[in-house]
Amino acid sequence: NVALLATYSITTTTVTVTVAAGHGLATGTRVFLDYTSGNGTDNIYTITVTGATTFTATVPSSSGTGNVSVYAQALMEIDITNSVPVCVTIPGEGIVANDGIYVGVPANIAATVFYG
Question: What is the chain's alpha carbon radius of gyration, rounded to the nearest angstrom?
Fold first, then answer.
């Protein structure tokens, strides 16, 4: 999964993300936001497109600005609320990961991926 590099600004519970090169996304798309600076909360969010280079999402209450990596190609999404181990098996022949595998997890969760 190739990330779109962007900047963000959070006001109360709304994050505005700006992708200078354009994002090509549609309202209702679920994306993983990986905040690389500032105090945003990494997680999957449903977006609302506000322009060719911008979109918004509802996030936990916060404020601030910084950089964010946007991952928009989700093969699978698993929502968990605690750190109990979960085993996920992909049936059949598996997956082809030409761009590699990216596993995004909230701050209090860890993941181990076996691929090969």
Answer: 15
